[in-house]
Amino acid sequence: MRLKKWALLMLAFVLVLSMAACSPSKGNVTNAGQQPNTENKAGENGGTNVAGANAVTDELTPEPGAQLIVWDGKDGLPFLAEIAKKFSEEYNIPVEVQEQGAPEQMQKMKTDGPAGLAADVLVLPHDNLSEAVAGGFVLPNDYFEEETKVEFQETAVQAVTKDGILYGYPRNMETYALFYNKELVQESDLASWDDIIAFSRGFNDIDKKQYGFMMQLNNFYFAYPFFSGYHGYVFGSNNTDPNDIGLNNEGSVEAMKYFQSMREILPMEAADATTDVKTALFQEGKLAINLDGVWNIGNFSSLPFEAGMVPLPKFPNGEVPNTFAGVKAYYVSAYSKYPNAAKLFARYVTTQEALLQNFEMTGFIPARKGMENEPAIKDNPMVSGAIQQFEHSVAMPSIFEMQQVWAPMANALELIWKGEDPQRTLDSAVSSIREGIETLHK
Questions:
Q1: Which are the contacts of 372, defined by CB distance < 8 A and separation ≥ 6?
Q2: Which of 7, 41, 221, 286 has its CA 20 to 30 A from that of 104?
Q3: Where is this region: Disordered (predicted)?
Q4: Looking at residue 45, what is its pLDDT?
Q5: C-alpha to C-alpha distances, 441 to 234, 434, 438, nearest whole angstrom
Q6: Residue 284 to residues 115, 209, 255, 288: CA-CA distances in angstroms?
């Protein structure tokens, strides 16, 4: 009897070993549901070296004869041309970089994708993700999912995730904060919004078109911090539930009352506070504090005076507001004949060394954690200020219904700035948003 039991145990052991030996290697799996094996991959340095990229990704085997096409807008081409050469030399995979802006990419995916003519790797802003997923244009970031979640800013990861599935390989983040003229204003004058108002009262000279503070007044993208600072919100459930709109709740109304009070220091029509107007005033030294996007860091780095950048300050209620963040990322095309090679490339161009090179060539602020300690970034005070603002930012809603928000809110902001009742105006705007959403779903 003991011999029989021993024989059965040995048979079971052999079967277990046989099944383990026959299990598929992760390197050849491209299914979205496959859980990645993170052992012996990123290591302690998180795969931060381009030259050592194959140490991170040697389990993912490119398809035989792989060759890639990558699309990006004009501003991203210089870096991609350089990094594509390195990738091709290391992996013997030809890479062709083509200029295509994001709107053109989305259009061409509808026609060139099924025809087999589309790019293997796309570069898109995160608010295109819903359309890309609905159209079946992009594959999940499955193989490098765990590394991406650990190594990149949470806001960036959330931005390139749809319905719980990670799709993008984050490249850079964009948001806005306060540029200021260091010859005109002290950083201590930017400690709170009340401080900004107090400074502007003493600095303004309207007849000479000299202003303490200016922002785009009728653009909800830039006005969102007033809402977030008073617990207003766009959509519920982390901006995924269009049935729950918080733009006319009690907090939003309080936010717009404070926003409305700032006309004292900016006595002009909302439509007149354009990007061109305030940029010119800032460059001429007639505007001390300019709420604007991080994409202007390069433009404001070579002025006759030294400019700084700091995060948005707290409101009178003590709350520090969140700004909207935009995230651009690489995506692997669902039509690619070489998905493994494309995933390998998307990972390669988002290592720490690659993103640092990209920053130095283009000024794109990396979405990767820990890069604020890189000398090229650390020594640029405006970039450091932008990175601090990223810590108080949320990904701009990317669901389809967000497109119904912009126009009604722009109109509401103009009316409130003119002095209309905030509650009544916001109620009307939300009603228009709901009608637009209902029409969208018909």
A1: 378, 384, 387
A2: 221
A3: 27-49
A4: 35
A5: 19, 11, 5
A6: 52, 11, 31, 10
pTM: predicted TM-score of the whole model, two decimal places = 0.80
Helices (H), 208-291: 220-229, 236-239, 250-261, 275-283
What is the greatest pairwise CA distance in the chain? 106
Tokens of 188: 């201590």
Residue 13: inside a domain: no
Distance, in Å, from the CA atom of 94 to the CA atom of 87, rounded to the nearest integer, reads: 8
- Provide the terminal-to-terminal Cα distance of the chain, rounded to the nearest Å: 73
The structure tokens listed for 87 are 């990738």
Domain presence at residue 130: yes
Residues 187 and 331 in one domain: no
Same domain, 159 and 200: no
Using the structure block, give the residue that is written with the tokens 């969140």: 322
Q: For residue 347, name the pLDDT band (cuts at 50, 70, 90).
A: very high
Amino acid (1-letter code) at residue 2 = R
Determine the structural domain holding residue 293 and report its residue range.
Answer: 176-323+399-440
User: CB neighbours (10 Å) of residue 418?
Assistant: 12
Buried b (16+ CB within 10 A) or exposed e, 375-411: eebeebebbbbbbebbebbbbbbbbebbebbeebbbb
Q: Are residues 156 and 196 in the same domain?
A: no
For 141-166, how does the pLDDT look when each residue is reduced to its tens digit (9 = 90+)? 999 999 999 999 999 999 999 999 99
HSE-up of residue 155 (Cα within 13 Å, Cβ side): 25
